[in-house]
Design goal:
The structure is a single chain. This protein is an alpha+beta fold. The protein has 2 domains: about 170 residues, Serine Threonine Protein Phosphatase 5, Tetratricopeptide repeat; about 110 residues, Copper amine oxidase-like, N-terminal domain (Copper Amine Oxidase, Chain A, domain 1), CATH 3.30.457.10. It contains 12 helices and 13 strands. A 5-stranded antiparallel beta sheet has the order 5-6-7-8-9, covered by helices on one side. Strands 2-1-13-12 form a 4-stranded mixed beta sheet, sandwiched between helices. It has a 4-stranded antiparallel beta sheet with strand order 3-4-11-10. The radius of gyration is 24 Å and the shape is elongated.
Length: about 300
């Protein structure tokens, strides 16, 4: 049996009648009105949690749905009303911190940052990035969104948020190229900016290879560049549309070239040769490379750049 105060707070958090939030409250544009398709499921979850506040899975799902529906205060109140032993569950702690951040409570940021170190979560990093962006910390926002992109590289919402943060950093004078390349959550530093040729993004091979952990060698006589990672070896020749992967010939749309004294390779062909996933965000001219295979949640990819 829960203490009376906890039971009352829990009942209040699960109250079906909600008051529309004031403008700018962080509750989103839904005004506290549930998405119709969620109604019956939320009713079921509300009953489950009211009957058994120790049901971590039901509580986390309910709070997540409220958060996704823009009901940040409702989600935060729900998590806060649960027994401490339940609140400490990582899945609920993440939702609670995300809800508090979205509601404008920056005091939740240190706890969320610590939790994400041991329990990486894309939506958690996005909530952190949004909070940091609102506070004016664009560098921190870029880092958070980049981490989210490593966990969910196919999400259009994540790559849009990352692209916007990178754009804002560039406008503030940071050395961000017009075509940024992000590899497994890291914005790659390059001494030659990427270029687009015939719809393909070319970037300095050495910078991309090193970000993947590959070893690179250059043969000035044949103008061939070779990269090796694990049991895979990829070789390109300047000016040639042919390249090899473990000795098997493949064909490029655009050949490798030298720009500004740097060997430039098509990022997509190079990264995919090493089994990486490549996403192109056409809104912000952003290339996201990741070794993680995640289900697609939408894409801004148009054309073939990358």
């Amino acid at each position: 049996m829960l203490p009376t105060g906890v039971t009352s707070a829990l009942q209040a958090a699960l109250a079906p009648d909600m008051v529309a939030p004031p403008p700018g409250s962080g509750e989103g544009s839904s005004g506290g009105v549930l998405v119709p398709n969620f109604g019956s499921l939320i009713d079921q979850l509300q009953t489950q949690v009211a009957n058994n506040p120790q049901d971590v899975n039901a509580a986390a799902e309910l709070a997540s749905m409220e958060l996704a529906n823009g009901q940040t205060s409702q989600a935060a109140q729900l998590v806060g009303s649960l027994p401490p032993s339940v609140q400490s569950d990582p899945s609920l702690a993440l939702v609670g911190d995300e809800a508090r951040l979205q509601a404008g409570h920056m005091s939740a940021l240190p706890g969320l940052a610590q939790l994400l170190q041991s329990h990486p979560d894309s939506t958690g990093f996005v909530a952190m990035g949004e909070a940091l962006a609102r506070s004016g910390d664009t560098g921190g926002a870029v880092s958070a969104f980049a981490n989210a992109s490593a966990l969910d590289p196919s999400s259009a919402a994540v790559t849009n948020a990352l692209g916007k943060a990178l754009q804002q950093s560039r406008q503030q004078g940071q050395a961000i190229p017009q075509i940024p390349v992000v590899v497994d959550g890291q914005v790659i530093s390059m001494d030659q900016a990427p270029v687009i040729q015939q719809g393909r993004t070319l970037a300095p091979m050495r910078a991309i290879a090193q970000s993947l952990g590959a070893q690179v060698s250059w043969d000035p006589t044949t103008q061939a560049v070779t990269a090796t990672l694990g049991n895979r070896t990829v070789q390109f020749t300047i000016g040639s549309n042919d390249y090899t992967v473990n000795g098997q010939q493949q064909t490029l749309d655009v050949p490798a070239s030298i720009v500004g004294g740097r060997t430039m390779l098509p990022v997509r062909a190079f990264a995919e040769a090493f089994g990486q996933q490549v996403q192109w965000n056409s809104i912000y001219d952003l290339v996201v490379v990741s070794g993680l295979s995640q289900p697609s949640t939408g894409s801004n990819s148009t054309g073939s750049s990358g």
